[in-house]
Amino acid sequence: MPLGTDYARQDCSLARSLELVGERWTLLLLRDAFLGVRRFSDFQAHLDISRAVLSSRLDALVADGLLTRSGEGHPTYELTEEGLDLWPALYALVQWGDRRTTPGRPRRLYQHVGCGDLGPDGRCHACGLTPAPGDVEVRQGPGADPSLRDDPVSVALRQPHRLLQPIPVR
Amino acid sequence: MPLGTDYARQDCSLARSLELVGERWTLLLLRDAFLGVRRFSDFQAHLDISRAVLSSRLDALVADGLLTRSGEGHPTYELTEEGLDLWPALYALVQWGDRRTTPGRPRRLYQHVGCGDLGPDGRCHACGLTPAPGDVEVRQGPGADPSLRDDPVSVALRQPHRLLQPIPVR
DNA sequence: AGCATATAGTCTGTCCATCAGACCAGATGA
DNA sequence: TCATCTGGTCTGATGGACAGACTATATGCT
Prior knowledge:
Two copies of one chain form a homodimer. By secondary structure, chain A is α+β, with helices and mostly antiparallel strands.
């Protein structure tokens, strides 16, 4: 039940969405999950988020069915179907941020694996389809600024890789 | 500079986006602006948001260039080009919320004016194009729950109307 | 097996944002 | 001209986010 108070008196799907993913850090956590981050300490290292808040956010996302927690000792967090379904919205927000802040110089490039680049609407330039996140490869774009972070997770994420593929840290 | 602290140390367009629209209430304000809400008191009546927070959010959105404020006495707030450009992301979040919370029964229906219904990706079923928000008409869907609110703004928004068209309150 | 370290948290006190509600000046309408 | 509406600001109370200390379990090394 995120957001301090909720938006219960809004008859609006956007309000419903924001109750699930509208809190500070939540969308960045999900973005990291798409990029292949799966472990508590990796989220923490990559986001500089307080452990207490990270713990509470992960609990909420698991309770809401957007992530699963598996493994006893050091659990891994992975996107559920419902979480994966958020990809188009997340991608649209990323594209808007790129257009707004570094026009013409995206920070990351997205490619339909073995096919073509993705446009701002998420469709592949080559085949015209909208690939699922598992069929998308990310690489650094001209707007990337590697000097901002040097934690192991950020370093690993700079290598071209498929979405959802666990990143090779440790 | 929203969000308490910002996400300055994230080299990510999503973080940049969320610095602009990630605070509580901000996306709901922008949604209302798309629906045709333009005045301080109308935002306030429709969202049940504290006046102080509404004032601060509108100031921030104007400062960030997503809204314009015009008129001396009782100003009207309208989306800028940059604000309008957020429509695909907003629409994707709304669709996700509909799928998650009331599958098969969307709260609002969106139609390409004089053409066909919009799909979850924002494209018109009839012509295949992705209409700009000004060419989209909203009406109530089967998942709408009119009992939730009866303020004049909510009542006016229930009538089918084009996005961006000022709603007839007062 | 035993030990050192890493991991995944929880707990604490401080600080800042949000809240409800009072208050107020200027604009608008009768 | 006067009453009301509109668009704010201000106040004190509450709750979430923060940095940093603390801890129990898991893992890796020898």
